[in-house]
Design goal:
With 37 residues, the protein is mainly alpha-helical. The protein contains one helix and no strands. The N and C termini lie far apart (54 Å). It comes from Bacteroides fragilis str. 3988T(B)14. Keywords: Membrane, Transmembrane, Transmembrane helix. This is Putative membrane protein.
Length: 37
C-alpha cells in the first residue's frame, strides 16, 4: 500500500514541479516584455 502511495506522491510532485516551471516561464516572459517597454 505504501508503495503505491509513494508512486502517487511522486506523480503529484512531478505535476507540481511542472506547474512551477510554467508559472515562472510565463512570468519571466511577462517581466521581460515589461522591462523592454
Amino acid at each position: 500500500m505504501s508503495f503505491f502511495f509513494a508512486l502517487d506522491q511522486e506523480k503529484h510532485f512531478y505535476y507540481f514541479m511542472e506547474w512551477i516551471y510554467t508559472f515562472f516561464l510565463f512570468h519571466g516572459v511577462f517581466l521581460y516584455y515589461f522591462i523592454l517597454l
